[in-house]
Amino acid sequence: MSMAMINPLTQKLEQFTTVDEADRARLDGWARHRQKRWDAKSDIISEGDHVDHIHLVLTGLAARYKLLPNGERQIMAFLVPGDLCDVEVFILDEMDHGIFAVSDVQCALIHKDKVEEMLTESSSLTKALWWSTMTDSAVLRERIVDHGRRDARERLAHLLYEMLIRYRIVGLSKDETYEFPVTQEELADATGMTPVHVNRTLKQLRDDGLIELKGKVVSILDTAAVKEVAQFNPNYLHLQRPSATSGDAVQRTDGLI
Amino acid sequence: MSMAMINPLTQKLEQFTTVDEADRARLDGWARHRQKRWDAKSDIISEGDHVDHIHLVLTGLAARYKLLPNGERQIMAFLVPGDLCDVEVFILDEMDHGIFAVSDVQCALIHKDKVEEMLTESSSLTKALWWSTMTDSAVLRERIVDHGRRDARERLAHLLYEMLIRYRIVGLSKDETYEFPVTQEELADATGMTPVHVNRTLKQLRDDGLIELKGKVVSILDTAAVKEVAQFNPNYLHLQRPSATSGDAVQRTDGLI
DNA sequence: CGACGGCTTGAGGTAAGTCAATCCACGTGG
DNA sequence: CCACGTGGATTGACTTACCTCAAGCCGTCG
């Protein structure tokens, strides 16, 4: 990572708390220490792996997935820069799912000992990291709502809008536009649909003037309408810093959502 | 909680590690200190609540849920004795979902300060609790697979079998039988189906001799067949203690699964 | 130029939803 | 002790959202 580049994990944690100089230095050390690159479509971690490094996505897009006995695939989460792939392996014995590189991906490898060290040395970072894993769970829960109670159109709109915000958090969106390097097949595996039906639904969203797709670039053309059809409630992303932490009761309204 | 009764949280954590006397005493103190009871169908925690106690289910069944603007409900997880309802509120500002009592529920209320205290005083319990939240996430991921890539029959079979194991962990199953006090409507809200279709699918599972339902009591009649149609792979429950933790390489085969 | 991966579109099929009636176990009050 | 009301389970008839199969298209890369 170049010196100029902002550590996307630091940037993400800023959503939750102010990261002080010591913590920032620690996070930068993690991101710089050891890096590795994966080609698009290759596995970063496979189901059953026993990992002793945590992977932090620096650039590119990755995805958690499971393969069913019949060969079908379900993508359970997308991982954007700033996301940690496998905090669980820190505790659990082996991966119960795999993670693959959707596009070319650059990761920092953080040895679990480094994280363990942090847990005792910085309670602020421990909390921040905890916040990160809790919001990851919240995103999983929202995905369950998507699959259980939203139809194709709502589900896609919800996913595309959520990704906008998650990219925005790490500074990878411009206005209402972001690069989302997925194929329609991957979108299908993430939304529990068929590639064919993803295609038709996207066309419908385009024809209705809600979104635009140019290559891998997504633009939300009509924010209000997209939030409306997605029934989007941003509370699950927990982008307001907890009021107990900030001295005053001022809630930030910096327009991320 | 009577003295004789085994703390279900302790019992659950035993899946992951051996709980020593000090930790056991701490957990029992938590469970005994302050308790509260909820009537069936009442809210234990509502969306938007700011909670400063963690709720530990002691008896009964609870469920995490979200309400959509159009009034539909999605149940994202069932909480059985030994499950913690809201570790997240420890960090996050407010609940992004609600939790309601499916049956009458008895909970222990644990003040967040008690938990914070534990985090600095017992690294073994900290790890065990971490394991617990990680497996909760794993269950959420499995639910996404259910919804995305399994049909009604597979989904119900999967849920019923998973619940058997989760009840078994806390000693609330007898052979292949357990009490699961849900209505078909709640089952529908959990599986993303219609009550009508839940009914038909259950009938089919019964007619095929896979399961039995007597009132609220579920029996898995044909374990092999149920695991087969559910494509059940227990790895996501992480019931093997991590090999790094146990001195020898012996894996337990006590037949929970 | 041809092959290939991914996108698009059409025609027809099916799992699951909707609407609605009936049934059944219960609890409760007259 | 029975009539009645109520919440939940059950079943039938019909509709629909999404799937399947299949063909064509389009850009790119060797």
Outline the secondary-structure elements.
Two copies of one chain form a homodimer.
Chain A (H helix, E strand, L loop, with lengths): L7 H6 L7 H13 L1 E4 L4 E3 L7 E7 L2 E6 L5 E7 L18 E4 L3 E7 H10 L1 H27 L2 H18 L3 E2 L2 E3 L4 H8 L3 H13 L3 E4 L2 E4 L2 H8 L27
Antiparallel strand pairs in A: 1-7, 2-6, 3-7, 4-5, 4-6, 8-9, 9-11, 10-11
Helix pairs in contact in A: 5-7, 5-8, 6-7
The structure holds a DNA duplex (30 and 30 nucleotides).
Give a quick set of tags describing it:
homodimer, 40% helix, alpha+beta, 257 residues, DNA-binding, four-stranded antiparallel sheet
Task: Give an account of the 3D structure.
Two copies of one chain form a homodimer. Chain A is α+β, with helices and mostly antiparallel strands. Chain A is built from eight helices and eleven strands. In chain A, a hairpin with a 2-residue loop joins strand 8 and strand 9. The longest helix of chain A is centred in the middle third of the chain and has 27 residues. The relative contact order of chain A is 0.14. About 4% of the residues of chain A have low confidence. At the A-B interface, strand 5 and helix 4 of A face strand 5 and helix 4 of B. The structure holds a DNA duplex (30 and 30 nucleotides).
